[in-house]
Amino acid sequence: METVGEVTETATTTVRSRKPQKKQQKGGEESTKQRTSSMETDVNERPQRPKSDEPEKRSQPPNEKFSERNGTVEEVDDRFSFSIRLQFNAATTGLFLLSFLTRFYRITHPRGVVFDEIHFGKFVSLYLKNTFYFDQHPPLGKLLIAGAAGAVGYSGSFEFPKIGSEYDATVPILALRFVPALCGSLLAPIVYSILRQVKLGQGVSILGGLLIILDNALLTHSRFILMESMLLFFAALGILTVLRFLQAEPFSARWWTLGTIASASLTAAVCVKFVGFYSYLLAMYIMGRHVWMELPDRRKSNAYILLQVIVKAVLIVSVSLAVYIGCFYLHFATLYKAGPHDNVMTSAFQASLEGGLASITKGQPLRVQHGSQITLKHTHGRVCWLHSHTHVYPIKYKDGRGSSHQQQVTCYGFKDVNNWWIVKRPNKDSLMVDDEPDFIEHGDVIQLVHGVTSRALNSHDVASPMSPLCQEVSCYIDYNISMPANLLWRVEILNGKESKNKWHAITSQVRLVHVNTTAALKYTGEQLPDWGYNQFEIAADRRQQTIDTIWNVEEHRYTQHKDKKDVLNKLLATEMIPTEPTKLSFWNKFSELQLKMLMHADKLENHMYSSEPHEWPLMDKGIAYWIDGESNAQVHLLGNLVIWYSSTMAIVMYVGFLVFYLIRRRREIYDLEPVEWDRFRLGGEIFLAGYLIHYLPYFFVERTLFLYNYLPALLFKVMLLCFVLDHCQLALRKFVKQSTVVVSVFRAIVVTWFAGAVYFFQRYSVLSYGTTALSADDVLELRLKDTWDLIVHKP
Question: Most CB within 10 Å of its CB: which of 299, 424, 583, 652?
């Protein structure tokens, strides 16, 4: 039996009306049979083919409950009932324990930083020190690990300097690796439950759970401070609860509970890594498919179906928003101190952190006016400031184009005295602030004068050095030739509602539009050659509506010294101490961080262990995670070759089965009964669609990718493999004569294949655990493919 023990506790508030019925022996036996059948029928049971000569039994209505005490049927309103069932399931418990043992075995080894632990461990330490950091992924995974580490008193003192660095005695390695290992341990029983939910037999469902346990790549990623095991856990739990949610009685307590858990789990996957959104899309597909299959049911009115769709949508959206926003609320509430990644954010964000940008903007004026000295920071994307120096553009570029030979204007990634500019009204000669303030507002026309060289910002119809479709931006030098000065710039305040169209330091985001050409001042992202000191190009672009044309004033003071030398000395020597942080609302921080994460998602540098999506299904390349300094013991990311190749073959087999059946059905030859055909389509659509949704998008991603990006797709591929094995057994029984012998041979083949998977797992577990000292010959024996870059640095 699948269930060896059960404890049920029920707390029920019901509205009942008892309807005594005439007690007859036959009726009582029939009712008892119905009750027994109802109790023994589980949503996970594999459907049996009905016998044609057996009359169909009346199913017990969901709102009736048989009472043994008086032989009556009690009508129960399920909308007001709630029950808690605690089941001891031998299969799920066994899978969890076996998975737990493999994941937690010597989990504190290696006692050094393993691969991306250098990043995620550092983020966890910053959480525990309340110090702001920036990561391109949402924060939930790091928050969970930080919570586990903080619970045992870890203060975040370890710096995670480099891969391989030894952890000191203050680092609770078990606590830091506990959450990923626990999520990895729970994955196998969840996969088992999903397979049972789509009506697969218990044996093949257990096989699915075992394959998850035996995959070396999933084992490796469950043992270290990495995000993938948490991502897979939440995604799989979300899919499981969606399937159960769709089978629950609409609007019952179970229905509401499962819907909430499903939405929360799927959103949690997104909150671990944005690629969890693919699982969210799969869940939406499953739910949309369920609605589509319900439409022909004439027992349900249009209004009822529409009501279900609306309520489901509201439930899913509201829970998802609450979880996602709540995750970031906790993130910002925890990280309130300035940190090493502040400069990625806007000036306003930095100034809102304790000890942040306010340390250099103490007491500076808020409103920009004529005579203001300012530094202009590129608001979004790469951190740099509008910059100029005495050097000029070369007369000729390498491609033969000519320049204006004017003073260079660039974007410089460091604070520098040459980043300072003076705001000037075109009709005024003085660069000093007036006694009567002359504030700059939205739509005003200004000139920007470079603080050190005293030359004004200029643009004209000359091609930019690195971006020929844009105009050159320079500081104007009068060479007494026919090249007039075009020095006027219009200030457009993009978030003017907050400041009532006044130009404010720090918070106002502005676009500077060249009056003569209507081109906007733009950071192009192109790096200048040696003549530009490898700084970044600034140009003017007539396509104004881009985020690279947005700037903000970071540092600001008023020009009050008429002696230019005094002005320069003040710029060089001034140091400021913070007063209080700038107030920035949660929603401003939230929206800015979402934009920054999306903008930085593609900015991963090339890596020697990166790979391409077409290399993943056959595991052409692994990743070196850690190497022992004293021997060749190492942690290397490789999957179970037997499972990966078999799963890839299963995709081909399922598509072949599907095409075969579709052609036959087109000829009105129905090989499968309706129940079996629906199950074949449902399982295949879920698992094949899940695989494709999690795999195909990577072919269109222009960033560095690694083998671990394939793990979510692998999860669905393994489940599809189990589905195909189950269907092969069914097809052999159905279409082959002497099927008993053939099925026995098939099972023997499966057992042999499974033994091969077990052997591969055991053979290559040394690369997952990293606990075994290896000789050079041992490493070479493990290298089944020339493309596997296993490390040998000791004889």
Answer: 424
633 and 571 share one domain: no
| Cβ 760 vs Cβ 642: under 8 Å | yes
Contact 216/263 with Cβ under 8 angstroms?
A: no
Instruction: Give yes or no: residues 323 and 417 share one domain.
Output: no
Under 8 Å between Cβ of 726 and 654: no
Which H/E stretch holds residue 17?
strand 16-19
Most confident region among 39-43, 85-89, 240-244 by mean pLDDT: 240-244
Please say whether the beta carbons of 8 and 88 come within 8 A. no
Whether 12 contacts 83, CB under 8 Å: yes
- The string of pLDDT tens digits covering residues 24-61 is 444 444 444 444 433 333 433 444 444 444 444 444 44
Give the range of the structural domain holding residue 400, as residue numbers without chain letter. Answer: 364-575
CATH of the domain at 506: 2.80.10.50
Q: Specify which residues 337 forms β-bridges with.
A: 131, 354
Instruction: Decide if 164 contacts 296 (C-beta within 8 A).
Output: no
Give which of 677, 599, 118 is closest to 382, Cα–Cα.
599
Q: Which two tokens stand for residue 701?
A: 């991603």
Residue 306: CB partners within 8 Å, gap ≥ 6?
A: none
Same domain, residue pair 670 and 760:
yes
pLDDT of residue 22: 39
Query: Does 588 map to a domain?
Result: no
Q: Has residue 595 been placed in a domain?
A: no
**Phi and psi torsions of 53, nearest 5°:** -90, 5
As a whole number of angstroms, the distance between CA 124 and CA 120 comes to 6
Task: Please state whether the predicted TM-score (pTM) of the whole model is above 0.85.
Answer: no
Q: Hey, what's the torsion of the CAs at 187, 189, 192, 193, to 10 degrees? A: -100
- Let me know whether 520 and 655 are in one domain: no
Q: Judge whether 499 lies within some domain.
A: yes
Q: Burial level of 345, CB count in 10 A (0-12/13-18/19+)?
A: buried
Domain termination site, one of 524, 544, 575? 575
Give the number of other CB atoms < 10 A from CB of residue 403. Answer: 18
Residue 277 structure tokens: 């959104």
DSSP sequence for 392-410: E--SB-TTS-B----EEEE
Helical H runs in 696-765?
Answer: 711-735, 739-764
Same domain membership, residue 564 and residue 673: no
The H or E element spanning position 140 is helix 140-151
The pair of structure tokens assigned to 523 is: 């950071």
What is the number of structural domains in the chain?
3
Tokens 């026919």 correspond to 482
Asked if residue 105 and residue 74 are part of one domain, the reply reads no
Same domain, 255 and 278: yes
306, two tokens: 């529409």
Residues 560 and 662 reside in one and the same domain: no
Reduced 3-state DSSP string for 86-111: EEEEHHHHHHHHHHHHHHHCCCCCCC
Query: φ, ψ for residue 577 (rounded to 5)?
Result: -115, 140
In a domain, 217, yes or no: yes
